[in-house]
Write a structure and sequence with these properties.
alpha/beta; Aspartate Aminotransferase, domain 2; Aspartate Aminotransferase, domain 1; 2 domains; 6-stranded mixed β-sheet; 4-stranded antiparallel β-sheet; about 40% helix
Length: about 300
């Protein structure tokens, strides 16, 4: 939904006064949306190891944005980034915006984590029980494994009308989306999947994946391999320096970048990633580490040939 319409209609804001505030790990679709709506982006860096936001970086970004004439902010907070599964502490955004008395709308991008994080972390504060949350997106074609294109958008009452297309008079209720027509089969598929699992069945499934992820991280710890994992999420992102290219290719690991300067590979632990797959991957890593140690031992203690 184009939340900028709220600022344009309610505050008579100019479009150049509105900006999207998000972290550097935010999904690229936000950049696409910003280009489509002619909105500027205010990107906040995250810590390279913890992938977390920090208050000074947010303050610096907001102060620069205000100096550039920005007065209204669409905040995009991540509940499970694509590469790391990291979850933003959106309270840092809100505190900085309130301190500067800047109007904002908070959107939770739970496209990936929406079917994981709320089930694995009962203390999750980013839901409609929190009055600060304006809207949430969840993708059923990721964890729920529904047909591609089954995105779910939820917002508070009074917001969706801001994007109502009154020209679509032949449609009952008018049109409220950018693409217009949508597949009803996708909605039926989501209903069927959720009905089949039920809330308890789905929670049990997430519990199994959490245990599997925890076990995998314990194995990485035992091997002293560098990785990132957001607690309560089922994505493990490995430092590329610890993974040989042939192992990454064999197990089809997803790189952060498809260029020479890639720094991370991710493993998403879904239903089809069985313990046997993880053990095979770890065995391949062990064989690589063993061969590297053997090579180092030979280099450090060269034999004299007579």
């Amino acid at each position: 939904m184009d939340v900028s319409q709220l600022f344009l209609q309610k505050y008579q804001a100019r479009r150049e006064e509105i900006a999207i505030l998000a972290s550097e790990d935010t999904h690229y679709s936000i950049a696409k949306g910003a280009n489509l709506l002619f909105l500027d982006k205010v990107i906040v860096p995250v810590h390279p190891d913890t992938r977390q936001l920090n208050a000074p970086a947010i303050a610096e970004a907001l102060d620069q944005a205000r100096a550039d004439g920005k007065k209204y902010f669409i905040v995009v907070a991540n509940m499970g980034t694509t590469m790391f599964g990291s979850v933003d502490n959106a309270q840092l955004y809100l505190a900085a915006l309130k301190q500067r008395d800047l109007p904002f709308q908070l959107h939770i991008d739970a496209a990936y984590g929406g079917f994981v994080y709320p089930f694995s972390n009962p203390q999750n504060p980013w839901h409609f029980g929190n009055p600060e949350v304006s809207s949430i997106t969840v993708d059923a074609h990721k964890m729920l494994q529904a047909p591609y294109g089954t995105g779910i958008f939820l917002c508070r009452k009074g917001l969706i009308e801001r994007v109502l297309t009154r020209e679509a008079e032949y449609i009952e209720g008018f049109d409220l989306t950018l693409c217009g027509s949508r597949s009803g089969a996708n909605a039926v598929a989501v209903w069927l999947i959720l009905s089949t699992y039920g809330p308890h069945g789905w929670a049990e499934k997430i519990g199994v994946l959490q245990n599997r992820t925890r076990w995998f991280c314990e194995q990485l710890n035992a091997r002293k391999l560098a990785y990132f994992r957001e607690p309560f999420m089922n994505i493990v992102t490995l430092s590329a320096s610890a993974i040989p290219e042939e192992v990454a290719s064999r197990f089809q690991l997803v790189p952060q970048k498809h260029q020479a300067d890639n720094q991370w590979y991710k493993v998403v632990l879904m239903d089809h990633v069985e313990m046997e797959h993880l053990e095979a991957f770890l065995e391949a890593l062990d064989n690589h580490l063993a061969s590297r140690e053997m090579y180092n031992a030979v280099v450090e203690s060269p034999q004299t040939v007579k």
